Automatic annotation (TrEMBL):
Family annotation (PANTHER family): BLL4482 PROTEIN-RELATED (PTHR35008), CYTOCHROME C DOMAIN-CONTAINING PROTEIN (PTHR35008:SF9)
Transmembrane region(s): none
Gene3D superfamilies, A to Z: Cytochrome c-like domain
All copies of domain Cytochrome c, residue ranges: 90-177, 201-294
Secretion signal, residue range per the UniProt entry: 1-21
Keywords, sorted A to Z: Heme, Iron, Metal-binding, Signal
Protein name: C-type cytochrome
Any Pfam family: SoxA-TsdA_cyt-c
């Protein structure tokens, strides 16, 4: 942001003006948001960094793109994002295109076709890659990052660069970012930052909240609701949260900070971070309940993060550079781990992962 600060502010201003015109993108607040319960800290933080983050952006209306090769590819990409299982799931019509290992859709997590603030938006992705990946220790381009979700969130395999779903997703994501400057940071990126707990998140308390607030949609066994019982490729009306057709244990959604914030700001489906239904504490506990369930396992996770000091504090699998237990990395509290990592960083700079040659 340092280099492009002035340009980004100028563009942010222009985009702000454009936001009041008809056709401005959905899923964002044009006015400063009201503080919600437990949100004051991050609101202050977002105001403090308001100059650096693009608050409102414009996305061309995809349905108005011409019916040429590019327009068709972008529309196909939106469809791959929304009906992933149909195009590339384990039961997709063309066996050569079965890259995903489950019947989730990208949009189940990247809400509103990747446009919802704190719903893991993809609006800035094409502007932000290539970028260094702490998980692999290498520079990742946008296709590599998509494959990160293919192999973990979608529990499948990487796609060849020239596979049609990959080309289409890249075209769609490039269009989403087309109004943003290179390296732009958007307001509402990720899943949010609810206040941390001072105690471990509690799966038993979470089970009670799950039974009250989630079970009607996600079902007692976490299996969700298929659109078509006879054909899994139609995907889910409500996606599973655990079990054999869910994301695997190496996925970002399997980290407590990510899922707690995602649930707080987006669940029950339809709420937003401006007016959440759950208190932060309830979100932590219900997320812990989901995290305590079984899901597909990905081999080789112990080789993630070549520098162990880059490993997010809530990564639920080792090895770790600090002395904290796996249980604390899974359920928190994370404050003490964060402090120890900061101390080790100041002391040693880096701690190589012994499993990476
Ligand atoms: C189970 C939930 C889930 C599913 C399904 C999923 N993702 Fe993700 N995705 C995530 C999480 C969590 C992140 C990390 C977000 C962060 O770090 O802010 C992420 C990050 C990304 C990013 C990087 C965004 C950025 O700006 O850094 C891209 C691109 C992406 N996903 C694409 C996809 C695509 C394409 C699909 C479908 C093939 C998909 N994802 C399916 C959860 C999911
Ligand atoms: C009204 C029905 C409904 C309720 C209630 C609900 N969800 Fe969801 N949930 C959904 C739908 C639908 C999606 C997918 C959204 C999409 O595809 O646009 C989803 C997506 C998710 C995801 C990301 C996708 C995945 O497979 O992991 C998580 C995590 C999640 N919900 C957790 C919860 C939790 C925890 C609760 C209870 C606090 C809850 N939901 C309550 C309908 C619901």
């Amino acid at each position: 942001m340092r280099r492009n600060g002035a340009a980004a502010r100028l563009l942010a201003g222009l985009i702000l003006m454009g936001a009041f015109a008809p056709g401005a993108a959905l899923g964002q607040q044009a006015t400063p948001p009201l503080p919600a319960a437990g949100r004051t800290d991050s609101l202050a933080a977002s105001l403090a960094t308001a100059n650096a983050r693009v608050a409102v952006w414009d996305i061309p209306d995809i349905d108005l793109l011409p019916d040429d090769e590019e327009g068709r590819l972008v529309r196909y990409g939106r469809s791959v994002l929304e009906a992933s299982a149909r195009h590339m799931g384990p039961d997709a019509a063309d066996p050569a295109q079965r890259f995903a290992g489950n019947n989730l859709a990208c949009v189940n997590c990247h809400l509103d076709a990747g446009r919802k603030k704190f719903g893991l938006p993809l609006v800035a992705a094409a502007a932000d890659y290539p970028r260094y990946s702490t998980r692999t220790g290498e520079t990742a381009d946008l296709a590599d990052r998509i494959d990160g979700c293919m192999t973990r969130s979608m529990n499948g395999r990487a796609m060849p660069r020239d596979a049609k779903p990959m080309r289409a997703l890249l075209a769609y994501l490039t269009l989403l970012s087309s109004a943003l400057p290179k390296d732009a940071k958007i307001e509402g990126a990720g899943a949010g930052a609810i206040p941390a707990l001072e105690r471990p998140a509690n799966p038993a308390r979470g089970a009670v909240i799950y039974a009250q607030t989630c079970v009607a949609c996600h079902r007692a066994g976490g299996e969700g609701l298929r659109r078509n019982e006879a054909d899994a490729s139609f995907g889910y009306g409500v996606p599973p949260l655990w079990g054999p057709d869910s994301f695997n244990d190496g996925a970002g959604m399997n980290r407590l900070v990510t899922i707690a914030n995602f649930v707080h700001d987006n669940m029950p489906n339809g709420v937003s971070w401006v007016m959440p239904a759950l208190a932060p504490e309830e979100a932590w506990d219900v997320a812990a309940y989901v995290a305590s369930q079984t899901r597909p396992h990905r081999d080789g996770l112990d080789r993630d993060f070549p520098d162990l000091l880059d490993k997010p504090v809530d990564t639920p699998y080792g090895p770790y550079a600090d002395g904290f237990s796996q249980a604390q990395h899974k359920y928190g509290p994370f404050g003490p781990i964060r402090a120890e990592i900061a101390r080790l960083k100041a002391d040693k700079g880096r701690v190589p992962n012994p499993n990476v040659r």
